[in-house]
Amino acid sequence: MNLNSDIKLENFQVKFITRGQEVKALRNTDLIIKKNKVTGIIGETGCGKSVLALGILGLLPKYAIVDGNIYYDSLNLKKINKKERAKYLGNIFGYIPQNPGESLNPIRKIKQQIKESLRLIYNQKNDIYNKSRELIGMFGFEDVERVLNSYPFQLSGGMQQRVLAAICIASDPDWIIADEPTKGLDKKVQKDTIKVFNKIRDQGIESMLIITHDITLVKDFCDELIVPRL
Ligand SMILES: Nc1ncnc2c1ncn2[C@@H]1O[C@H](COP(=O)(O)OP(=O)(O)OP(=O)(O)O)[C@@H](O)[C@H]1O
Ligand SMILES: [Mg+2]
Fold first, then answer.
1. Nearest residue (CA) to ligand 1, atom 13
2. For 97-130, how does the pLDDT look when each residue is reduced to its tens digit (9 = 90+)?
3. Distance 46 CA to ligand 1 centre (A)
């Protein structure tokens, strides 16, 4: 696919009706998130950071009231259908969600989960086998076989995150979107996370959107900063 475009939000807003009350989850937002840059989003709890990411990815719940547009090259991401979206999700966006443990499938081994992403690009079994090993090895695991043959619950939070990063880049997306990648991790693993992102960048994925409360991550890694309004 590789359109490699900026992400342009035009008057994008999200509301929820909760117990009969309207909650403005994200106020009308006009924003250009530049390609080939690492953009950090920092802001208070509840200001709509995760909703913004989910909106771009088309993963908001059905009951969300969404207005405005999101452009990616000539695509209007707000308007594309479910089937097209499934195609674009892996090809355009790699998503590292707020809770890595919850987004890995608990009943499938890591090797099966990584294979699914690799199948988007590789046809040959052998290529998929080799690439899985290469990707897991790249994220600092020594015992690659053991990781590939593990279920998610057999890995620590930090390990799950590295696995998820490997799965995320397996489909060679244009963008990485990460929600609070260092949240709940101890200082050492937080530092390792920055290494993980540097690795991703070394692989040629240079466009990233990183939601965080972590000032060190912003200072050390981001080129641009967005602070959404409450
Ligand atoms: N599925 C939902 N249903 C109802 N309200 C929601 C839903 N998701 C988010 N909200 C509301 O939308 C607002 C923005 O939520 P969001 O999760 O984007 O905040 P955030 O900036 O990511 O916060 P945090 O820093 O705590 O992760 C909040 O008021 C939240 O309660
Ligand atoms: Mg959030």
1. 25
2. 877 777 899 999 999 999 998 998 899 999 999 9
3. 5
- Contact yes or no for 159/148 (Cβ under 8 A): no
Which residues, other chains included, contact 208 with Cβ-Cβ below 8 Å and sequence gap of 6+? 37, 38, 39, 175, 176, 177, 178, 197, 200, 201
CA of 128 to the centre of ligand 2 (A): 33
Helices H / strands E in the chain, number of each: 9, 9
Query: What are the pLDDT digits (tens) for 10-69?
Result: 999 999 998 889 999 999 999 999 999 999 999 888 999 999 999 999 889 999 999 999
Residue nearest to atom 3 of ligand 1 (CA): 16
Domain boundaries, the chain: 7-226
Question: Ligand 1: which of 13, 18, 50, 182 to mutate, judged by most atoms within 8 Å of the beta carbon?
Answer: 50
Q: Indicate the pTM of the whole model.
A: 0.89
- The CATH code of domain 7-226 reads 3.40.50.300
Cα–Cα distance, 199 to 14 (Å, whole number): 33
